[in-house]
Amino acid sequence: MRWMWIDRVVELQPRQRLVSIKHISLAEEHMHEHFAATEARSSLPVMPGSLIVEGVAQSGGILIGHALAFEQKIVLAKVTRVDLDHDATAGDTLRYTITIDQFGPQGASTKGVVDLLEVWSGKSRTIGHIDLMFSVLENNMAGIEFPEGNFVFGEAFKTLMRNSGVLIPGE
Fold first, then answer.
1. How many CB atoms are closer than 10 A to CB 23?
2. Residue 46 forms part of a structural domain
3. Which H or E run contains 109?
4. In this structure, are residues 132 and 41 in contact, taking their beta carbons and an 8 Å threshold?
5. What's the sign of the alpha-carbon dihedral 45, 51, 52, 55?
6. What per-residue confidence (pLDDT) applies to 1?
């Protein structure tokens, strides 16, 4: 995966919960287009909600993947809830707290909470809830076969996990 929408895993309770963070920087290319300046107003760089959902999905995928020793391919199957009630802008830090709601051989569902961390004050506030469903490709009900190599948990994810102190089975 080329784009990483989390910067670090800060807590992992196997098969239960994962907490990750995302630091938002004006150096990120998407911030300049969302929303660019017009003649009527100055720029308003905000993190698109879809990328916040992707950050929660990547965090949930790591939690589910870790529970399966990263031996199977875990993909986002369905977004069941997205409630975001505040924009995140350059300089903000987001904390994603993901918990497993249900877990089985064909997949899992997770509940996610998005908090905005105010680094300067040490306070945080919840700005959203994102609930997701994941599928284990090897156990899909359609019987479709996928490539052997694990194209979901590639080297970028492994680097993120190693840098976060998360043990990768088999290493």
1. 15
2. yes
3. strand 107-118
4. no
5. negative
6. 46
Entry pTM: 0.91
Residues forming the active site = 34
Query: Within a domain: residue 156?
Result: no
* Spatial contact of 49 and 8, defined as CB atoms under 8 Å apart: no
Range of the domain at 115: 8-148
Cβ atoms of residues 88 and 53 within 8 Å: no
H or E stretch covering 47: none
In angstroms, rounded to a whole number, what is the distance separating the alpha carbons of residues 105 and 49?
30
Other beta carbons within 10 Å of 155: 8
Contact 84, 128 (CB under 8 A): yes
Q: Give me Rg for the CA atoms of the chain.
A: 17
CATH number at residue 84: 3.10.129.10
- pLDDT in single tens digits along all 171 residues of the chain: 468 899 999 999 999 999 999 999 988 888 777 777 788 888 788 899 999 999 999 999 999 999 999 888 999 999 999 999 999 988 899 999 999 999 999 999 999 999 999 877 888 999 999 999 999 988 877 777 877 777 778 888 888 989 999 888 777
Which residue in 9, 147, 166, 7 sits closest to 72, CA to CA?
147
Tokens encoding 81: 């809830």
